[in-house]
Amino acid sequence: MNTIRRRFQPEQIRELVLIALIIGILIFFGTQIDNYFSPRTFTRISTSVAVIAVVAVGQTLVILTRNIDLSVGSIVGFTAYIVGTILSINNDIPPVAVVLMAVAMGAVMGSINGLLVAYGRVPAIIVTLGTLAIFRTVLVEISGANSVLTNELPRWLVNLPPVNAFTLGPLDIRLLFFLAVVVVIIFQLVVSYLPWGRRLYAIGSNPDAARVAGFPAQRIIFTAFVLSGALAGLGGFMFLARFGNITVVAGQGIELQSVAAAVVGGVNINGGLGSPFGAFLGAILIDVLDNSLIRWLAISEFWRDALLGLLILLAVATDTVIMNRLRKVWARHELQVSGDGEPPVEKGGAGYAA
Amino acid sequence: MRPDWSIFRRWEGLLLILLILIVGYNALSTPGYLTVGNWVNLFQLSIEKIIVALIMTFIIINAEIDLSVASVMGFSACMMGFLFAGGMPMEWAIAGGLLAGFVAGLFNSFWIGIVGLPSLVVTLAGLIGYRGLAYVLLEDRSIGEFPAWFDRLGQQPLIGPFPLALIVFFVLLIFAIIVLQYSGFGRYVYVIGNSKDVARYSGVRVRRTKMILFVVSSTVAALAGILYAARLGAVRGDMALGFELDIITMVLLGGVSIFGGTGTMWGVLLSVLIILNLRNGMGLANFSGHVQTGVIGVLLILSVLVPNLAGTVQAALKRRRARTVEVVAAE
Fold this sequence. Notes:
heterodimer, A: mainly alpha, ABC transporter involved in vitamin B12 uptake, BtuC, two-stranded antiparallel ribbon, 14 helices, 2 strands, B: mainly alpha, 4 strands
């Protein structure tokens, strides 16, 4: 037991539990659905998880600081639509410029949120509820209710979703999924090791203490919102690549899905706890459930939202009830260790913030 | 005696001025604007949201939030439609719909009050889950053909020019004002919103108050959902989708702090009137529904940003004045 305690932090155990849960669900549906364990299932789930995962990582950064970004759904729709329109007018823009354009567009919208929250001292839930409506309104107005059509887009973009980054045995790792994984890894490293990332946890755990300690809290919160917007912009590009046909309501509901992914993945809604990797696992769990319920014949596919709601509740309930108890065990153990004169246990892991 | 102008420095005063400006503009530009018929119409178009905004005021003053109300509206109405389509008499189907809302409220308050989860998460799960249950009940069907008396209750005036929903709203409004502003329970709601810990140490039953509020919230939402069904004459799984944002906006614009503890029912009433008249005025001036939503979004942000900035400026002025006084005193 002591070795386990020394090796893992409670949050890492939580992520292991999440992985075990995903595997359990996969095994369960494997017995229920014919031909479930096929490369096609993997391709289907990995393709649809990519967009949500990228947006959920940005959402995680914001939630870590005890804020929330409800405007991401409109940012995804906005960038997907505008980038799509620009591309259908001019097919020759190089791909890298297209991605940068989407990210920059998202970052600008995120910076509006960040300015109002960090420097205008308006609560994040109010700002992003407002911008959720405002960004969508601007989109509807400038679009004139036209749609982006697949056949107007450049060929490279339309052909992007089936492109493989590489293959792993029979499994195809799609480029878009690979991109999402890269984003998750980068931000996992950022919040684990960079001072900026550690300060996100500090601000979220105790804003007053962080301010007293002299952290530039306003600037850090501002940057978190800009990054959330930028990642939502990237998500918008991936959305465009995946669907091709974009209407003005594109991306509606992604704000709640990203919050759900983060919360199921163990990101505490009150800030200071959780990690991008956890949010990624949360997104996968939700998507596996979603994709499998559609194919499961025992119950109607209409059950999926009801079950998803229950899943979120159970995930958060385990988080508060069980994790609080685990953390107490860990803390007591550390006290004992330091009481014996031994050096205190090394504190690692992105989740460690309490 | 000098007149007391202090009301205009309060939030409600600002709202009142804004309301008078908007109504004045509408009345001058549209003949027949100030008739009872037009105002009944005005209310009737979003009466269900307004009814739910009353109880949402309690919840937000209590420093909680209920994101699940719109889904509960849809769920209860679908439950009613489901029972009716299954051959139950309409009266029992309505009771079943209300019961569904009551149970949803019990479920929410169990997780919030007993397990102790944040209401934002519980009701976010409810927002997804109850909507899901509505789809489970009706799948992609639509159920209509309700008895004629039910549709008539939703669409025709009941007493004088007022339809049932409007009468329900007035009764609930008076009740809400009395409970929130003039009763012990209302004081508890404020005290808990200001500081949960102080309230608990003072012997206020925090958990019970919160649980009552969430049960009432879902039950009122169920009632609103059924009134909505009566007005539309049919129910579908996606009924009232996205209403929670409009409802919360109404409350926040009324000067209720998202952190709890401040705000009044009067402010919310004024903000409801402003939103109704603004939407109506913009509708008459041929702005689309999307623009109206956008403008209300801007208004929502400004409603917090402007007082914040004003506070900053005021503090800076005070500091400068204090410094001047010091300099003068030193000389």
